[in-house]
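It is worth pausing here to work through a concrete case rather than discussing structure prediction in the abstract. The textbook approach is simple: state the sequence, then state the predicted structure, then interpret. We follow exactly that order.
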Amino acid sequence: MMNARENFTLLASGARPAWIPFTMDIGGSEGFTAAIQQRFERETGATDPAEYFDYDFRLASIPRRFDGVGRRPRTDAPPGTQFDEWGIGHWAGGAEDTYERMFPPLAAAGSIREIEDYPEPLLDLGLVDGAVRAFHSRGYPVVGYAGSIYEWSWWLRGMEQFMVDLLEEPDLAAAIIAKVSGFTARLALESARAGIDVLAFYDDAGSQSGMQISPTIWRSLIKPAWRRVLGEVRREAPSAVFFLHSCGNITEIVPDIAEAGFHILHPVQPECMDPAAVKAAWGGKLILCATLGAQRSLSLATAEQVRHETARLVETVGADRRCILCPSNRIQPETPWENVVAFAEAARASGGRR
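Step two, the predicted structure:
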């Protein structure tokens, strides 16, 4: 009997898989927010959603941490602020499973030298290799977090200041992009060396109505950086599969995403994009994650509506089985548990897997 990794290999190679792969994770990130994870444990008595629902993928990412030697994260952040591997502060302000404010460490940087001297995250290598081998031995493909370019750039600088840089200080913007793309290439290469099958990149470039920055600027600065990163990885790991998560309406740059070398596009956000149209135009170049909208369908619909919408997605995007079924984003705290179960059951049934 074919296992999940063999089935995914068919999909990634351009063939028709035996069934449509399914997961409730978001690339290399867990799909359950803390509130949904707690509800899952209460309802099932289990602790691992991937095992309980038997996702077609498993997660393993190289740990990353802030290089704090001689550096301190911003001290003006309020108590409860969490600092990530770049030293970027994220403050929730009491909200659940979200962030209300960010504290960018390079907001005041006035020179390229300051940007170049800022420490890159440290990688704890060798810690995921055993997990990857164990998942492979059980027949699962492994997805791992592999970095960002545009998103990390404005997180480091602050969105408003980075937008100004793009127009008025392009050399500073280019220095930040070079900084983060260099680290992303290193993280992606090390992930491929660890045996991770799918390298999951995250680069939200859209709003609900269109691009956050002009497609022209994206094509002149961000797309070449992605081409360099993916090309560097591909030279050493030609079988690596590249996944891109980019929320919002990014319809204008979908052709560029394919041309840059990505294999899988997520989420083709159904609240603001037309998955069927994207499939018709680019289904031969990109594997679409046929996503159920976490913003509306999963959180606001009934369980029956969730089942119907999942089946409709399969009809419009997955008739050839060349897609992946998953949510459009992490499953939010207000989502009814019945909807989570309905999506898992419908995805397996509609996707041809029992």
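Step three, interpretation. DSSP finds 14 helices and twelve strands in the chain. The mean pLDDT is 94.
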